[in-house]
Design goal:
Blueprint (H helix, E strand, L loop, with lengths): L9 H14 L3 H27 L3 H9 L13
Helix pairs in contact: 1-2
């Protein structure tokens, strides 16, 4: 494990401390979890951008032609 020194605005520190106490976890756990969520979001964005590069309109149209023309259920309409 690594140790870091982190400077936080007082208001953010108080809010984080309150949330950690409410959830019964340490500040360390709260911050590690929040950072893990952010890292996962960036990784997902990067992954989707990379996957999008291999897409093509031609392939999309070909796939859509395979979908039957059926009226959407009432609960599934906009």
């Amino acid at each position: 494990m690594s140790t870091i020194s982190l400077r936080l605005p007082e208001s953010l520190h108080k809010t984080a401390k309150r949330l950690a106490e409410r959830d019964g976890i340490s500040m360390n756990q709260l911050i590690a979890s929040a950072l893990a969520e952010k890292v996962a979001a960036f990784a997902t964005k990067d992954y989707l951008e990379e996957r999008a590069k291999s897409g093509s309109k031609k392939k999309f149209v070909r796939a859509m032609k395979k979908v039957s023309s059926v009226e959407a259920e009432e609960y599934d309409r906009l």
